[in-house]
Recover the amino acids of this structure.
């Protein structure tokens, strides 16, 4: 008997004025130990289907099914005790946002131990010891300390590991992973995916991987369901789906995975649009030392030099904590630098007053990762897009509204959207509005900070295509901050790799991908998800000590300068620099 049996599942949500059909009669099964991927864009019904299987949907949901069975139990007729047994021992779920899955007022150890005691007859001490063993199994090195941490004290990757540990605490027969790596860095994503596969094999669990990322599907599952607007478009073995997709929608998804864009034609002006010289940022932090506190400096960014040529796209890549976003915010003067220069059109703006800086604000704009928090929820889209014109006193109110309507169309939205509010839009639509607001002043420099990291693969391709088209039309110079190396490869002209606040390598994009020289760059590239199941491989992840040991060493002819103990950027080819130890 299959572990999961779903037949003709329908889910709708009651709303004012009617109902929204989220799932429209889908059917599938899952055998013990099998790996199933459910792929589709936001709103396709993939998460709703699995939430219905565990009876986790809100009261506004209406669920019907000819068959809805988990581990032999009819879920639709299950009572509270049966549901409590099913949620944990039969199936456990890993959510996209681990922060919302943990209670912020209790420690990690308390919450995992509580889950263990809810399903197994063990003492509090035994449950805590088991919680520690589980944290160690998901490769949290300081598990004894993490037991007493609160959720906010862990990074996204660490918190995701802790949630996997909590899911495993009940030894479930099926693990449901709902977008478990969407907002994670490429290296952390690869580690989490490899960890899930190892644990699945070790515990003999079945796996349902819910995602919009075909790279994740290629890495992890044996069979795939492709969903669109609440229906299954295609189903089959993963290799067949990638090699010979039958449905047009599946082919569209795969085309988005391989999308590429032509580089912009060269510009004649040799003066960079933006130049960062020796830019640094440090924070004063307080640490406990016995009964007292001691103060020290945390160096978030260390003496960064970056040149952004005119009409070019330069990527800054690196994992969380590498300093890439801080560098972008300092370039925009949204965060003050500790030292260094920010040169725009030949003028150092790092020390300008807010009033003197205002004319430069027109030339430099930014698009943030989270468009929802970046847009005022109390303003209509027309008001949001026109706001920069109002701030800079450009045009009459009527002219400002007219230009906002033109920009709505320019970013691919109808003028009828003008009276809508941000909460009425999808993530991709909100990002289009954010781009329109950033570009309505006609800037020469755009900083794009992870603008596509939380978007579906098809929407991501649309937004990248839009940015590329507008960049070519307007002659924009763009600083593109991202951990998505697949997008960086297809979009940018050159790449700056940051690690622990330092630039460790920079080169033209093609050269970085073809011939990376720094061990950290190679580790980033090795972590990129496969684009076909045939490319699956076991990955090894470097520690900070291993990266330091593998840093290149060059012998040069000294010209009077004393050798440095610390690594420094060395030019090894035209436009290609790498951090290395230099000896005479």
């Amino acid at each position: 008997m299959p572990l999961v049996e779903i037949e003709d599942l329908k889910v709708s949500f009651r709303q004012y004025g009617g109902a929204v059909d989220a799932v429209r009669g889908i059917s599938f099964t899952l055998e013990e130990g099998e790996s199933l991927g459910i792929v589709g864009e936001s709103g396709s019904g993939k998460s709703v289907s699995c939430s219905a299987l565990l009876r986790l949907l809100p009261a506004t949901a209406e669920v019907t099914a000819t068959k809805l069975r988990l581990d032999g139990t009819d879920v639709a007729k299950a009572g509270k005790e049966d549901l409590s047994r099913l949620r944990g021992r039969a199936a456990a779920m890993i959510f996209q946002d681990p922060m919302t899955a943990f209670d912020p007022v209790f420690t990690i150890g308390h919450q995992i131990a509580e889950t263990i005691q809810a399903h197994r007859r063990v003492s509090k001490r035994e449950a805590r010891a088991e919680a520690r063993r589980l944290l160690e199994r998901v490769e949290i090195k300081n598990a004894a300390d993490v037991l007493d941490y609160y959720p906010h004290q862990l990074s996204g990757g660490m918190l995701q590991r802790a949630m996997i540990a909590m899911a495993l605490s009940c030894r479930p027969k099926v693990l449901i992973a709902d977008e478990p790596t969407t907002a994670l860095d490429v290296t952390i994503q690869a580690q989490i995916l490899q960890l899930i596969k190892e644990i699945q094999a070790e515990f003999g669990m079945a796996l349902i991987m819910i995602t919009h990322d075909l790279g994740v599907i290629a890495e992890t599952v044996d069979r795939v369901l492709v969903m669109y607007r609440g229906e299954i478009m295609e189903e089959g073995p993963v290799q067949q789906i990638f090699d010979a997709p039958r449905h047009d929608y599946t082919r569209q998804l795969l085309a988005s995975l391989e999308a590429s864009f032509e580089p912009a034609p060269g510009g004649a002006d040799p003066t960079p649009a933006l130049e960062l010289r020796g830019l640094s940022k440090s924070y004063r932090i307080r640490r406990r030392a016995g009964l007292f506190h001691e103060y020290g400096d945390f160096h978030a960014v260390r003496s960064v030099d970056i040149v952004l040529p005119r009409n070019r796209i330069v990527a800054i890549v690196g994992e969380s904590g590498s300093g890439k976003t801080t560098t972008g915010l300092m370039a925009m003067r949204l965060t003050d630098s500790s030292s260094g220069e920010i040169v725009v059109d030949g003028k150092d703006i790092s020390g300008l007053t807010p009033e003197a800086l205002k004319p430069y604000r027109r030339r430099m704009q930014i698009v943030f990762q989270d468009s929802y928090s970046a847009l005022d929820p109390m303003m209509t889209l027309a008001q949001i897009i026109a706001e920069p014109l109002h701030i800079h006193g450009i045009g009459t109110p009527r002219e400002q509204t007219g230009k906002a309507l033109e920009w709505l169309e320019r970013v691919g939205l109808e003028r009828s959207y003008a009276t809508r509010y941000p909460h009425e839009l999808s993530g991709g639509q909100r990002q289009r509005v954010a781009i329109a607001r950033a570009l309505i002043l006609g800037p020469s420099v755009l900083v794009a900070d992870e603008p596509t990291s939380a978007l579906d693969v098809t929407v991501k391709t649309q937004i990248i295509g839009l940015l590329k088209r507008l960049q070519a039309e307007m002659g924009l110079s763009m600083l593109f901050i991202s951990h998505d190396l697949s997008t960086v490869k297809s979009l940018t002209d050159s790449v700056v790799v940051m690690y622990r606040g330092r630039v460790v390598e920079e080169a033209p994009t093609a050269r970085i991908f073809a011939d990376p020289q720094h061990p950290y760059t190679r580790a980033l590239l090795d972590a990129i998800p496969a684009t076909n199941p045939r490319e699956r491989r076991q990955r090894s992840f470097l520690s900070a000590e291993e990266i330091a040991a593998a840093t290149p060493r060059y012998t040069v002819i000294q010209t009077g300068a004393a050798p440095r103990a610390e690594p420094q950027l060395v030019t090894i080819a035209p436009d290609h620099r790498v951090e290395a130890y230099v000896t005479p």
